[in-house]
Design brief:
- With 397 residues, the chain is α+β, with helices and mostly antiparallel strands.
- Helices cover 47% and strands 19% of the residues.
Length: 397
């Protein structure tokens, strides 16, 4: 029995690498990275991060998150049919065509899947894509799908809270008064390989060669499915990390409400539909509330009279090694008070071999950081400011 499970588990891993969505979203994240770098070069004439930033985050956190969800879904006993997985894949593809990662939230993907399972059996779609969309085949438990939605939203909230603010991309815009200000865009795609039980008798009628195993008198197949969670938002009135963390916590709170309704549907099935409605509407309300709140604040990255606000740090630059953070304010360079970009560069050039900065961090605390400068490094330290519209002499590594 143990050997059978191990063998089936290894086969499930192989099926994950055969899934077309795995390779589609590798290409998708590369496209998003390319678009980001193109915009950074347009605004700053230099890239902040390389084009593979989004690709590196695609699996790095998702593997761990997928392992946790796999344990929970198998433990709870959530079973999905092959038809349900096809619907999930189709909806994921359609939502991804907008090149807006925030549309790939579990509330949208699994929520639309939920209503598709209700509507498709009423339509004449038999033998569509070699699958049977009859009521006999689409027997995935709606309560189970609502609970699965809640689980994915819990993971979504956690990922946004802890990882959504890493590597946000700066850009420049004009305020209503015509002044140049800065803003940040966060966008991430996490791929979660989640292990599911599929009903074996249904699969073998569609794909005879698919291996199955037995639990009691019932046959099942294991399959790792590449679920995708997308996230994106624009921030201009708050520190990016603060706003993104707030959003993640709100999604977590919403997921708990959805989970309560979904679990209640085990006894009262109507609560499954209520849970999905709450998820879709609540997730959109969080996005709207975030935009309204952000717009109500003055621009965070704007010119100040008593220092220079750091809009971005170029990857692998001296400033990154000096632990300068986005949102901090530089008030002195090599002992010289700076209020403009020109004064900042002039103060650096007074000592080409060494740099000492006086910085006010995001909590209003003053700190000092210093470092020797070496040949081949950015002579401007690799710091971008709102006022910085000059062309850089060399590229970030």
């Amino acid at each position: 029995m143990v050997e059978e499970w191990v063998l089936e588990f290894l086969k499930a891993i192989g099926r994950f690498f055969l899934h077309p969505l795995t390779y589609y979203f590798i290409a998708y994240t590369l496209l998003i990275g390319f678009i980001r770098v193109k915009k950074e070069r347009r605004d700053f004439h230099v890239r902040i991060y390389d084009s593979f930033l989004e690709l590196r985050s695609l699996f790095s956190v998702g593997l761990f998150a997928g392992a946790i969800l796999s344990i929970v879904t198998i433990g709870v006993g959530i079973v999905l049919t092959l038809e349900t997985l096809v619907i999930v894949a189709i909806i994921t593809l359609i939502l991804s065509f907008m090149i807006t990662p925030r549309l790939l939230t579990p509330a949208n993907v699994l929520g639309l899947t939920f209503f598709s399972l209700i509507l498709l059996p009423k339509l004449d779609l038999n033998d569509f894509a070699m699958l049977s969309f009859s009521s006999d085949q689409l027997w995935t438990s709606l309560s189970g799908l609502a609970i699965l939605l809640a689980l994915f939203m819990i993971m979504e909230g956690f990922l946004i809270w802890k990882k959504g603010g890493v590597g946000t991309s700066p850009y420049l815009k004009k305020s209503k008064r015509g002044l140049q200000v800065g803003a940040h865009k966060a966008q991430r795609i996490w791929m979660l390989p989640v292990l599911f039980l599929l009903p074996g008798e249904v699969i073998t009628t569609q794909i005879p060669w698919w291996p199955v195993f037995s639990i009691g008198q019932t046959e099942y197949a294991l399959c790792f499915v590449p679920f995708v969670i997308g996230f994106s938002m624009h921030i201009q009135g708050m520190h990016p990390s603060e706003m993104i963390q707030q959003t993640g916590k709100r999604v977590l709170l919403l997921s708990l409400i959805v989970a309560t309704a979904a679990i209640s549907s085990i006894w009262l099935p109507v609560f499954a539909t209520i849970a999905v409605f709450i998820a879709i509407l609540g997730r959109e309300m969080i996005a709207i509330q975030q935009r309204l709140k952000d717009d109500s604040y003055p621009f965070y990255f704007s010119q100040r009279d008593h220092g220079l606000v750091v809009l971005a740090i170029i990857s692998q630059s001296p400033a990154e090694k000096m632990a300068i953070q986005v949102g901090e304010m530089i008030t002195k360079v090599n002992g010289v008070t700076v209020r403009s970009v020109e004064e900042f560069y002039e103060a650096i050039q007074k000592n080409s071999a060494f740099c000492k900065l006086e910085v006010i961090d995001v909590n209003g605390q003053v700190r000092f950081t210093q470092r020797a400068l070496y040949d081949g490094e950015h002579h401007e330290l690799g710091i971008l400011f709102v006022q910085d519209d000059k062309k850089w002499d060399n590229e970030a590594v």
